Structures are given as structure tokens and as C-alpha cells.
TrEMBL record:
InterPro entries in UniProt: Cyanamide_hydratase_HD, HD/PDEase_dom, HD_domain
The species this protein was found in: Penicillium salamii
UniProt cross-references to PROSITE patterns, sorted A to Z: HD
Protein name in the entry: HD domain-containing protein
SMART domains linked: HDc
Length: 244
């Protein structure tokens, strides 16, 4: 039984298999148009601090990708998973920090795969209480939920369970990167999100990051997605090609 505290931070267990999860939802109507204005960024001290942190550490294409994942994910949640009770803030933090391990500095700072190192970085930065704003700190449960989601956001398992916030991060990330699950988001939502947060040739940028990590760490977790297959899926993203 998931406690109410666990639920608001996204610890509700759901299917790891996106295919089985989406089949179980079986939406009876097409995805509605959900504009960026309907999924605003949380107006909290913690969200503002982490947004500033992400802006100052991530290249613009990666930062924009993180915000697209936020808005696409909430559009999916509204349409397909309205009972998932986690807060927009928790999901926002996971989106902003999910690729923090891909910066050139962080790729070279560790032998760990970028998702794992990113999860540890997130766990640390979220629980730091700045003297200027003591309220801008995550609880341990919230920080651990975000870290878990980041560590597993490329863990595309077909068996077992994952947290609800982790599954939404996976779905929206793969959607933006490869165009999978195109039926889950209205075309006008895609257009509105990319107008606000341009891709700036994101597909080529992301593939360069994939190749850079594999060059530095040929054992990295990204290789489980296919050293050739995954970059090919990213570069073959026909859904997002008009917005590149």
C-alpha cells in the first residue's frame, strides 16, 4: 500500500513496460490539445532554484529538451494517467535534472554512466539548503524519487515495476528523442511546445552526446539501447523532424 506521502512524490509502482501500460490505459479518445499555458512551471522556491541551476549548467539545447519533456509528460499524464497523484514540482525537478550527467564536465568527472551520476548529483543538489532561501530544499523522499527516476530514465524494461514519476519521465523522454508513442500527444501540443522550447537540431546534439559517452565509457548503460540502433532511432525521428 502506497502512503499518501509516497504518492505525492511519485513512488506509486506502475508497469515498467510502456507497451503494456499503454494497452491497459486504452484511451477511448484522441489526445487533446494541451498548450504550454495549461502546464505551467511550478511557482515554488525549490523549482526556481533548480531551474536556475539547470540553466547555468546545461547547454541550451539540453535545457530546452528538459522543458519539452516536462510539458509533454504533463500532457500525457492529464490524458492517460489522471489518477497519478505526484506533484508537478517533483516531475519538474526530475525533468530539469535528468540529463545533468551529460555535460562535458560531468561526463569526464566519473566512470559512472551518465544517468547514475546524474541521479547522485540530483540527490545532492536537491537537499542543499541555500542560506538565502531555506525553503528551497527538497525533502529526502522527494529527492530520492527524483534520483530514482533519473537513474532509471533509460532503463526500458519489459518486466517488473517502476515509479509513476519515473515512467512518465521515460515516456516523455523517448517521445521527444525518437517520436515513439506519437498517439499520446496532440500534434498542436507538439507545435506549441517546440515554439516555446526550440529543438535547435536536438537529434544531432543528442546523438553527439551518446557517441561521446560511449567513447569515454564503452561500458555505459546507454549501450544497452543499442550502440547503433539507438542513435539511428534518434536521427530517424520523423515526428520531430519538421521542428529540428
Amino acid at each position: 500500500m502506497v502512503s499518501s506521502t509516497e504518492a505525492i512524490y511519485g513512488f506509486t509502482p506502475v508497469e515498467s513496460s510502456a507497451q503494456r501500460l499503454l494497452l491497459s490505459v486504452n484511451p477511448t479518445s484522441p489526445a487533446p490539445f494541451i498548450p504550454v499555458s495549461a502546464t505551467p512551471i511550478p511557482d515554488t522556491s525549490l523549482s526556481r532554484r533548480i531551474d536556475e541551476y539547470a540553466r547555468s549548467h546545461l547547454p541550451v539545447p539540453t535545457y530546452n529538451h528538459s522543458l519539452r519533456v516536462y510539458h509533454y509528460g504533463l500532457a500525457m499524464k492529464s490524458h492517460l494517467f489522471p489518477t497519478w497523484a505526484f506533484t508537478d514540482e517533483t516531475y519538474f525537478l526530475a525533468c530539469l535534472l535528468h540529463d545533468i550527467g551529460t555535460t562535458e564536465t560531468n561526463l569526464n568527472s566519473t566512470k559512472l554512466s551518465f544517468e547514475f551520476y546524474g541521479g547522485f548529483l540530483a540527490l545532492d543538489v536537491l537537499q542543499k539548503s541555500p542560506a538565502s532561501d531555506p525553503d528551497a530544499v527538497a525533502s529526502r523522499d522527494q529527492a530520492e524519487s527524483v534520483a530514482e527516476a533519473i537513474i532509471r530514465h533509460q532503463d526500458l524494461c519489459q518486466q517488473g515495476k517502476i515509479t509513476a514519476v519515473g515512467q512518465l519521465l521515460q515516456l516523455a523522454t523517448i517521445f521527444d528523442n525518437t517520436g515513439a508513442y506519437s498517439e499520446c500527444v496532440h500534434s498542436s501540443t507538439i507545435e506549441d511546445v517546440t515554439n516555446h522550447f526550440p529543438r535547435i537540431k536536438w537529434s544531432h546534439c543528442f546523438v553527439a552526446t551518446i557517441n561521446r559517452e560511449i567513447e569515454l565509457k564503452p561500458w555505459c548503460h546507454t549501450t544497452t539501447l543499442g550502440e547503433d540502433e539507438f542513435p539511428a532511432k534518434v536521427l530517424g525521428n520523423k515526428l520531430m523532424e519538421p521542428f529540428e
